């Protein structure tokens, strides 16, 4: 039996990048997956590529109304939801002194508020399913400093994960956070950034960046019953960067 057989999962920001890698791994492991994203064209095409166990729903993760719609459509398509992966997120490479309040709040709403909304919205469906697993994608910048806005919100995701784990444990719902380091996504491996990334990789204890699938395998583990006694914890996948 595959590791996620019988699971119904929602993965946000899943039209491309790491979210898409997570979705592919989930389908391969037997889950039925609802992919959400604002990019409708890419999302629809990718869901079709994954086959009958995947559907796409356009979603603004900062909208409480959209969350209600996504949960309802997920239940209609596949039944009560067992797994939520809060993957959607953005960053902005700006100095704090140059960042406007509107820019800052956009990061806060997408990276932080959406996680709160998703956890709150999915709880009732997970109770119908008899329990579930929420996986919040943070970052190593939820453990150490980095860009303003991104770092703050990723620390917040780590904290919310612990608070939510305590709130939801009596309902049989586990909540954990994942903290990736440098991942070889198409965005960071473009020619203008590739040389800098390869130079940085020399300073990573494992001497390389992570492949997206290495993060997805950790997310699969946390979504599965294999991690049945893990909740309120952070799981780091960074090649040893934060151990230095």
UniProtKB/TrEMBL annotation:
> Which GO biological process annotations does it have?
bile acid metabolic process
InterPro entries cross-referenced by the UniProt entry: NAD(P)-bd_dom_sf (IPR036291), SDR_fam (IPR002347)
Q: Which residues form a coiled coil?
A: none
Enzyme Commission number(s) of this protein: 1.1.1.53
Alphabetized GO MF terms: androstan-3-alpha,17-beta-diol dehydrogenase (NAD+) activity
Q: Keywords on this record?
A: Oxidoreductase
- Give one Pfam hit by family name: adh_short_C2
* Top EC category: oxidoreductase
Q: Which PANTHER family match?
A: DEHYDROGENASES, SHORT CHAIN, ESTRADIOL 17-BETA-DEHYDROGENASE 8-RELATED
Say which family it is in. Belongs to the short-chain dehydrogenases/reductases (SDR) family.
What's the protein here called? 3-alpha-(Or 20-beta)-hydroxysteroid dehydrogenase
Please give the organism. Answer: Solibacillus isronensis B3W22
- Gene encoding the protein: fabG3_1
């Amino acid at each position: 039996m595959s590791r996620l057989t019988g699971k119904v999962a929602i993965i946000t920001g899943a039209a491309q990048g790491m979210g898409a890698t997570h979705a592919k791994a989930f389908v391969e492991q037997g889950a039925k997956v609802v992919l959400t994203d604002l990019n409708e064209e890419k999302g629809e095409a990718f869901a079709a590529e994954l086959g009958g166990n995947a559907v796409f729903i356009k979603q603004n993760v900062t909208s409480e109304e959209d969350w209600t719609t996504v949960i309802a459509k997920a239940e209609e398509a596949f039944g009560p939801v067992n797994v939520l992966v809060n993957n959607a997120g953005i960053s902005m490479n700006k100095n704090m002194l140059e960042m406007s309040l509107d820019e800052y709040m956009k990061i806060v709403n997408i990276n932080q508020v959406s996680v709160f909304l998703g956890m709150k919205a999915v709880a009732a469906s997970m109770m119908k399913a008899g329990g579930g697993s929420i996986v919040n994608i943070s970052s190593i910048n939820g453990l150490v400093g980095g860009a303003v806005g991104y770092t703050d919100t990723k620390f917040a995701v780590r904290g919310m994960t612990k608070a939510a784990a305590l709130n939801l444990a009596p309902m049989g719902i586990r909540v954990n956070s994942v903290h990736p380091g440098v991942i070889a996504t198409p965005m960071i491996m473009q020619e203008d950034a590739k040389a800098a990334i390869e130079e940085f990789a020399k300073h990573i204890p494992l001497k390389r960046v992570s492949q997206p699938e290495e993060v997805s395998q950790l997310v699969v583990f946390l979504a599965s019953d294999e991690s049945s006694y893990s909740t309120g914890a952070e799981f780091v996948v960074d090649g040893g960067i934060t151990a230095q």
